[in-house]
Amino acid sequence: MPLQLNYLTRPHQSRRRDLLLLTLLFGLLFLQLLGHFPLIDPDETRYAEIPREMLERGDLITPLLNYVKYFEKPVLLYWLNAFSFSLFGISEFSARLFCALSGLGTVLFSYHLGRELFGRRTGLLAALVLGGCTGFLIQARINITDIPLTFTMTVALGSYILAARDADHPRPGYYYLFYLFAALAVLAKGLIGIVLPGAVVFWHIVLTRRWRILKEMRLVTGFLLFLAVAAPWFVLVCQRNPEFFQFFFIHEHFERFLTKVHRRYQPVWYFIPILFGFMIPWSFFIPTALRNFWRNRAATGGEARLYLALWAIIIFAFFSKSNSKLPAYILPVYPALAILIAGLFDRAFNGDFRPLRRPALASGGLLVLLGCAALLYPLVAHRALVGPIGGLVIGSIVILQGAVVLAAAKREDPRQLFVGLLAGSILLFLTAPHIVFPLFVERKSYREPGQIVKKLAAPDAVLVSQGLRQGLSYYAERRCVIFDGPGEIEFGSKIGDQSAWFLNRDGFRALWNGPKPVYAMILRDYLGELSAGSAVKPRILWQSSKHYLVTNR
Description:
By secondary structure, the chain is mainly alpha-helical. It has 25 helices and 8 strands. It has a 6-stranded mixed beta sheet with strand order 5-4-3-6-8-7. Helix 22 (470-476) links the parallel strand 3 (462-466) and strand 4. The longest helix is centred in the last third of the chain and has 31 residues, at 414-444. Residues 452-552 form the Aminoarabinose transferase C-terminal domain.
């Protein structure tokens, strides 16, 4: 058997060596070409523009977006990105760095958690499953709040079970890690940072009837630690901004969960295909990994599997019930599922391939079909995101991966099966973004027009956008006048006198025909109206499939 497979399947190996190898492998994957592609609008540029403005103003307490108050998210990612900008300058790399490091940290902690609960091999396999999940790799390299949330919540939830798993010898240090990282999760994305870990812990105690844990959890000192980390920023931002409390806690938490106010409503089953698609090729093993977690709770390792199942099910159910849904919301369930899936492969390495056979055959067959679909997609899709060569490359990788998986399932070879799944996913991750992103970025990035404005516009020039375009402000490094609606900064647009910065079309035309130089990002179908109703004809500086950047000079 090849050396790498021997290393993979050994039940005992140096923890330090494992962590070093995992850090080298996934550090390369998470960080390679991190700044190669422009930031994607609106999410990535939003979470880069807010810390850029914080540094410009010298205020790390009150978040502003396009220089008006923006209270939809807490401050952790803003602080991390501001720190990164201070170290490395303002760039795509520095904007994504701490999210990529959070993804890497999640992989490494999953190794630690799996090893502590089930042994070295399960821990190593769990890290490889999670890090070899193409959907997780791609999302962890994007500048969004869900990645730091996933890392902090993973450490919090993992620390609790590491503290509580041995009823006779509780480990108080891990309880304090639970409180610390729950507080950081609150700073990452709000109350769900404590509500979801609290729900998982509650149901673990109820279902195992281990009420003694409540005495062991250091509730008083742990809660004080939680408040010491989580509370100061909320206190300061409320003192400086009296409107913060109602908007953040009522509007952004209860109304977001219970109503369709954010216009992100999706059916209750929305996350089922999302989870399946983003965890491919490991998603086929999820039902088997979750099966019998309740029935086998009294077996060796059964309580830990029960806890991991609760972790995945409760968080998945919570976001499925919510009336506001986006694909990245369920990222915190991935580490728990990765450890459970790793347990299946560990069992197969010990000689029991039966639980893997059916999902392996299903995954191999579907991967072959998906590969064929990728070959045909550029030929039949309207405005395809990949060309024929890109479809050929992606399709060939997926077909080859499926063929290896089918062969391994037929031979009942868990090593070939695992390596085939992992290698195919990593190869797909290394190639697909370079094929898909160029066309995707053309539709979702404003780097080029922003840099044009930054280069050409004098200090007295006015930058205008038809609708909010966060990337335009970020790359131009100046405030935008907005016309045709404020978009997601509607709340901030109503605080103070913002009349000069939020205009209707008549106000924009008056500005356009005025004495100041104007650079305006407009929709393509508005160009004719602007030309017909203006004394100064627009000069086109840049264009895309949806927009023009025009100037009156």
